[in-house]
Amino acid sequence: MEKLIISAAICGAEVTKEQNPAVPYTIEEIVREAKSAYDAGAAVIHLHVRWDDGTPTQETKRFQEAVDAIRKVCPDVIIQPSTGGAVGMTDLERLASTDIVPTPEFATLDCGTCNFGGDEIFVNTDNTIFNFAKIMKERGIKPELEVFDKGMVDIARKADKKGLLVHPLHFDFVLGVQMTATLRDLVFMVGSLPEGSTWTATGLGRNAWHIAAATISLGGNVRVGFEDNLYLEKGVLAKSNGEMVAKAVQLAKLLGREIATPDEAREILGLKK
Q1: Closest to 273 measured CA to CA, from 64, 10, 68, 77
Q2: Does some domain include residue 219?
Q3: Is residue 19 part of a domain?
Q4: Position 151 in a domain
């Protein structure tokens, strides 16, 4: 099998310090968590940013500040800005994260509307998805295609047929939100991908570690971190993103997978540094 790419989603837009005191808000805290993940073996830092009070923002200046600070301590890591932002943001607000210098090599592209629970709806129309893909292609940014169910894989295929995506396509399965997080579901999603695609998977909350183990066994790549899960094991809060990356590394060693460096991950994903 190819080496395992580990992505660390270090803060997200929704989790809070009330849920886990180690969730980062400030630039200094974001850098701390990025470095802990990188040192433990993460090749990709999936990045949201916050204001110091924890409020999520897509402001370009804040992303630039965070990226510059991370680069000082993790010079070769792949930084993947989120274009998802937070529920309620406009398309232009969400894309502001890609206006940084230099242009990101990798960024997320959500491939469908998602129910996040209660009345929270994360809206992504077909036109929004195609427009994001077009802009990212023009800027030379490789999209990670975020999919929460099988229908979103099909929407990504539509964007590909329009010539808006660059091969190899790379998908991230987010399981445990709109689609349940079972081994059956993971295998079904993997089987629905276009030939030659690469993929990552993450299970939210209590689904994190069985999805990680199954993904490693199936030859995929894993995402861990505070955005998706706050616990190292049942009842035990993780003290850092690095602790969760280290657990993923341990699982990989038990299952016979080597860990990819950032440059090896670039080669696997077809990124242009």
Answers
A1: 77
A2: yes
A3: yes
A4: yes
Domain count, the chain: 1
Q: Answer yes or no: is 1 within a domain.
A: no
As a whole number of angstroms, the distance between CA 211 and CA 67 comes to: 29
Q: Provide the domain limits for residue 254.
A: 6-269
Q: What is the pLDDT along the chain (273 residues), one digit of tens a residue?
A: 899 999 999 999 999 999 999 999 999 999 999 999 999 999 999 999 999 999 999 999 999 999 999 999 999 999 999 998 777 778 888 999 999 999 999 999 999 999 888 888 889 999 999 999 999 999 999 999 999 999 999 999 999 999 999 999 999 999 999 999 999 999 999 999 999 999 999 999 999 999 999 999 999 999 999 999 999 999 999 999 999 999 999 999 999 999 999 999 999 999 975
The pTM of the full predicted model, rounded to 2 decimals, is 0.97
- Compute the radius of gyration of the chain from its Cα atoms: 17
* Unique residue bearing structure tokens 């400030």: 26
